[in-house]
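2024-03-11 09:14:02 DEBUG pipeline.ingest accepted 1 chain
2024-03-11 09:14:02 DEBUG pipeline.ingest length=211
2024-03-11 09:14:03 DEBUG pipeline.predict start
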Amino acid sequence: MTRDIQRSERFIITLNKVDLVTLSGVLTSSLAVAAALSGSIYLCTSLLFLAMLGDALDGILARKYKLERPFGRYLDGFMDILIYLVAPTLALYIHGFNGLWVIALWSVLICGSIRLSVFNDIGNIQESNGLAYLGMPVFWSVFILGGFLLLELLLPQWLVYSLLSVSLCAFSYAMIIRRPFFKFKKLSHILTLTIGNSLLFLVLHLSLQHA
């Protein structure tokens, strides 16, 4: 019977519909990196907010359809590395946040990797008001990137870079501190934050293209 089962399974894992939502992060994050490499930082950020939407929906769908399993959590962790660590730090580096500033980017990569490894081990934690994160979740990197780009339109570069450096170091510390962090649970809030910000940076990208 074991041999029959092995013959019938062509691949090492059977993906479900939620896994496919998770894997959409490969497309959106790679397109975001491509946009950053071409100098389109606003388009890059718009795509990262779309990637964040997919990342948020997979967990909601997995719980709704009872498709939660260790593989899904591991897969989600790998997507998080692409979406929230590799793509934003690379985008900032290409955008000009380099030289000594790169130390702040390293701190995000190191602490974010530690944070995600712990998450893969324990998942979400249960608090009195529902599920929460242990340590600040990595998705805040995209909000930091977006905030930096908006401030860059208003403030001198040295000041914005200084604020970004402090924010990234504080973010790195918050990711590995042992305390619960709020988890967005309402779909309306998630859609507003992700789609709204994605449209905002898409408009900024298009306005720059036509300037």
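2024-03-11 09:14:41 DEBUG pipeline.report The helical segments are 2-8, 17-37, 41-64, 70-95, 102-122, 140-152, 157-176, 187-209.
2024-03-11 09:14:41 DEBUG pipeline.predict end
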